[in-house]
Amino acid sequence: MSPRDLLLALVVIVVWGLNFVVIMVGLHDVPPMLLGALRFMLAAVPAVFFVKQPQVPLRWLLAYGLTISLGQFAFLFSAMKVGMPAGLASLVLQSQAFFTLFFAVLFLGEHLRRANLLGLLVAAAGLVLIGTQADRGMTLAGFVLTLGAASMWALGNIVTRKFGKVNLVGLVVWGSLVPPLPFLALSLWLEGPTAIELALRGLGVDTLLVLVYLAFGATLLGYGLWSRLLSRYPASQVAPFSLLVPVVGLSSSALLLGERLGPLQLAGALLVMLGLVVNVWGGWLYGWLRLRLA
């Protein structure tokens, strides 16, 4: 990877890692479902007038928007509103890698490799350890909802595999047209018109900056650069960079929000990261060790 593209990869990781702190700031003034609606309205318009529609069937575009956009962020925003710390959210959300493996086996008939299974077991142990610490700066409801967000992201990944090769930026932009109305319906139902009116009337510069960051930074810029990297390098070379997202998420939340992990939470976080590393590189490492020991 060229130095310039390496820098772009690191920009994406920082933008996505800081995303969780920004979400937490936004949730101070805007209810979760309304925040989701505003985020995706801003991400879709006016971008849809400049980005070509991806050549995918409408039903799959709807499925993508309802899972990876609506489902993931409805659960994630709600989780962070009810007590999931930003740093831990960035980490637990990465369990999507293992939900994706499970759904791929269930719906696509794929098979787990030994490295996948080992990584899943190690990460699951870490998640259980984190879940048992629900009384230490984290609610059990927030933890469970974050797992729900990870499962929705994973379902979106399965939908994406149905597309084959597709322009990722176009998919994100046009997929962003799907969630605003469902988000608004959920906001009316769960948060009520009074809360919506108060939030819209009270929109300040901080909230507007949050929306700009979520729509243009985390969504359009992040996926745009990620798509560029995937078009120039093998996925196996690009995907491991996503392991750095929770590193940035945990460190930025500690620095900017004062979040701190307890000893068992830290141990659980390390196990989750180890599980993710084994999932990505375990097969290669096993093959390398066999060659060295042969």
From TrEMBL:
Main location: membrane
UniProt keyword annotations, A-Z: Membrane, Transmembrane, Transmembrane helix
Lipid bilayer topology: Multi-pass membrane protein
GO CC annotation terms, alphabetical: membrane
InterPro entries: AA-Vitamin_Transporters, EamA_dom, EmrE-like
One Pfam entry name: EamA
Recorded superkingdom: Bacteria
Localisation per UniProt entry: Membrane
Transmembrane segments: 7-27, 33-51, 58-80, 86-108, 115-134, 140-159, 166-188, 208-226, 238-258, 264-289
Domain EamA: 6-131, 142-280
Name recorded for this polypeptide: O-acetylserine/cysteine exporter
Organism: Stutzerimonas stutzeri (Pseudomonas stutzeri)
